[in-house]
């Protein structure tokens, strides 16, 4: 396994009531002695180092003598969410992961370790994992079935930092965020009653069920940070998600009790969702992308990977998973590991002014300027009637965008890429795409079709 380096980690387990236990860790000079509590539970903190040598832990009592070997100190990251996080390196049936064969063929790496929590739900919080694939050294024999985003992130992080990396994967396709939140926190939003539910039918859509079985048993294990790719399961509830997702992150951080650990997440990618004409209501997933973008300001020590340019109109599981992992990695390298020259942030709409029947947009995270590969597209503009028309758009002064239309002489608002399926055309000079956005907060806007 991999234990988080240079920190205090928790070792825990069970024994007979009051049973005396000793722990000898190869990197510690002294033997640790203690006894289990009245219920047989025990838990103790020990410090790790930055040694790259394999370590051992021996846990001994009158009845037991357990040795854990081939332990490395490194960086441990948790990956969770739904099917786009679950998507394996080998891809789904008929839905590939680009670069999978090369990744699998070159995956042998003794310093990259992978752990998978199997899909299972529970009505009550579990102390121990009931289904899992134990720690494995990355190799062509096991990488194919592991989370593509988790693998690509971990493989690159290991090479860049030149330290061991451990990736813990715990996700479930089609899951709602409510399933990943504890009962105590979910109860502040709604009454949670699952005693009479058949937990085997839809645990991934059942409040608290995945937290209970797939997160709670992990919580004593010290991690560096978390990666999250989820949102499709809540796409018709953007305002609710804007409350639930930050609450989930706070819930996890409180229970891990290791501070506001880094939490980097992916904005859902453009996809048809069966309704390309949706514009002014929640069937348009631009509202969900907007909610996810706003969560940046609601979740301390967080970052987002924008995917406006790598979606697929016909596949809800975009094949370009390495690009997603790259953008999460850039967040981590800059914000967590101090590589300040890695410009990870996407341009983000800040403000606008009206000039000569045009709207001039200004952006944060655009000090190096704005860029488009061919031409800017997918901007629409509206006046007092709140009817949006296709607009002409261009980059001005290298850092602003001018938007106008002959059909809107007194413009008030602009929206960009404001539909389900769209390919983003606006980037920063770092080639990180901007999210879809709007300058208004209207709930009764309409559009003129092109």
From TrEMBL:
- Superkingdom is Bacteria
Hydrolase as a keyword of this entry, yes or no, is: yes
Alphabetized UniProt keyword annotations = Hydrolase
- List the Gene3D superfamilies: SGNH hydrolase
Q: Where is the Sialate O-acetylesterase domain?
A: 75-305
* Protein's name in the database: Sialate O-acetylesterase
Q: Which organism is it from?
A: Litoribaculum gwangyangense
What is the taxonomic lineage of the source species? Bacteria, Pseudomonadati, Bacteroidota, Flavobacteriia, Flavobacteriales
